[in-house]
Amino acid sequence: MNNSEETKLLRNLITAISNKKTITFNYTKKDGTIKKRVVNPHTIYDDKNNNICIDGLQIKGSSDTITKGFKVFKLDNITDLIVLDKVQSFEIESIYNPDSDRYINSIIKVSDYNK
């Protein structure tokens, strides 16, 4: 992904989070398979390995885990992102902890717009 693509992707994600809008995208897994995901994004942050990550509640799409909860998506593995503007804004999940240590280097959190 080049800088222009990353900037556009981040801009769209920031718009989605600030407006609490669901997103859909294709996600490339470690084994190279690509699966469509539908997610309520809650935070963008730099992880401890300097990867830009999105934490969000996956509401549709393939997943290796069966437990409900937040999933981590690396920005570099996301393509074809669409913000679902016509869908009603999502509610912040009660299990979401905006003060988690993992968000120490957050770019944006949905809780920043919960006013």
Please provide a written account of the structure:
There is one protein chain. The chain has 115 residues and is mostly beta strands. It has a single domain, classed as SH3 type barrels (Roll), CATH 2.30.30. Helices cover 14% and strands 38% of the residues. The protein has one helix at 3-18, and strands spanning 23-28, 34-46, 52-61, 70-74, 78-83, 106-109. Strands 1, 2, 3, 4, 5 and 6 form a six-stranded antiparallel beta sheet that branches. A hairpin with a 5-residue loop joins strand 2 (34-46) and strand 3. The model has no long low-confidence stretch (mean pLDDT 90).
In short:
The protein has one helix at residues 3-18, and strands spanning 23-28, 34-46, 52-61, 70-74, 78-83, 106-109. With 115 residues, it is mainly beta.
